[in-house]
Amino acid sequence: NAGVTQTPKFQVLKTGQSMTLQCAQDMNHEYMSWYRQDPGMGLRLIHYSVGAGITDQGEVPNGYNVSRSTTEDFPLRLLSAAPSQTSVYFCASSPSGGTGELFFGEGSRLTVL
Amino acid sequence: KQEVTQIPAALSVPEGENLVLNCSFTDSAIYNLQWFRQDPGKGLTSLLLIQSSQREQTSGRLNASLDKSSGRSTLYIAASQPGDSATYLCAVRNYGQNFVFGPGTRLSVLP
């Protein structure tokens, strides 16, 4: 059972480069989200989606873009990477309706030089 | 705005002790509360999920309680082991469907 799959696990970028972090889930979950985790800052919500074609901003959306063309996939795009975006990124999914459990991917460690 | 806090920030105990981790939240309008474990450099693993209508959930040596009216949850770990060493995070799911996380409690269980 794959659950939530994130790729790549590690990535090094130069300032100004763009890239996409991939997230896929095979549990038919409607809710998907992206978090970043930084020392001393905890987990912060970047963007989320409650279903295909629907996305919304979280707490720290600037510099990131998302789309949700299918139920399974929720990619996170860094438009022009900055050193402040060096972080560990987590994708998570949950059934909608409120009572569902949140499942996490293993994370993607991004370093921006 | 929902805020979640966890006390203590760090805890060190000898093996075999029973311990309690605390989680507090400011807005009681939640669907559920979930406890996670995170090992260094790893992702988050779900431990227990308590629905807003429930008072507690148990899994093995773990017991989580929820008092929604007072905005509190506790995670009780019985007979702690060195393998329990990790960071424990709680998260509440708001009526708006998003999850808000606490900063975590870093637990060290000494052999």
**Biggest sheet of chain B, open or closed, and with what strands and sense?**
6 strands, mixed
Helix percent of chain B reads under 10%
- Provide a count of the helices of chain B: 0
Structural class of chain A: mainly beta
Proportion in β-strands of chain A: over 45%
Helical stretch tally of chain A: 0
C-alpha Rg of chain A (nearest Å): 13 Å
Secondary-structure element pattern of chain A, one letter each? EEEEEEEEEEE
Which pair of chains has the greatest number of interface residues, and how are they split between the two chains? Answer: A-B, 22 and 22 residues
> What's the pLDDT, averaged over the residues of chain B?
95
> What overall form of chain B do the CA principal axes indicate?
globular
* Global mean pLDDT of chain A: 94
C-alpha Rg of chain B, in Å? Answer: 13 Å
**Portion in helices of chain A:** under 10%
In terms of DSSP E residues, the strand content of chain B is over 45%
Question: Which structural class matches the secondary elements of chain B?
Answer: mainly beta
Basic shape of chain A: globular
- Span between termini of chain A: 36 Å
Report the uncertain regions of chain A: none
What's the β-strand tally of chain B? 11
**Low-confidence spans of chain B:** none
Topology:
The complex is a heterodimer of chains A (113) and B (111).
Chain A: E1 4-7, E2 10-13, E3 19-25, E4 31-38, E5 42-51, E6 54-57, E7 64-66, E8 76-78, E9 87-94, E10 103-104, E11 108-112
Parallel strand pairs in A: 2-11
Antiparallel strand pairs in A: 1-3, 3-8, 4-5, 4-9, 5-6, 7-8, 9-10, 9-11
Chain B: E1 4-7, E2 10-14, E3 19-25, E4 30-38, E5 44-51, E6 56-59, E7 62-67, E8 72-77, E9 86-94, E10 99-101, E11 105-110
Parallel strand pairs in B: 2-11
Antiparallel strand pairs in B: 1-3, 3-8, 4-5, 4-9, 6-7, 7-8, 9-10, 9-11
Name the features.
heterodimer; A: 113 residues; mainly beta; seven-stranded mixed β-sheet; four-stranded antiparallel β-sheet; 0% helix; B: mainly beta; five-stranded antiparallel β-sheet
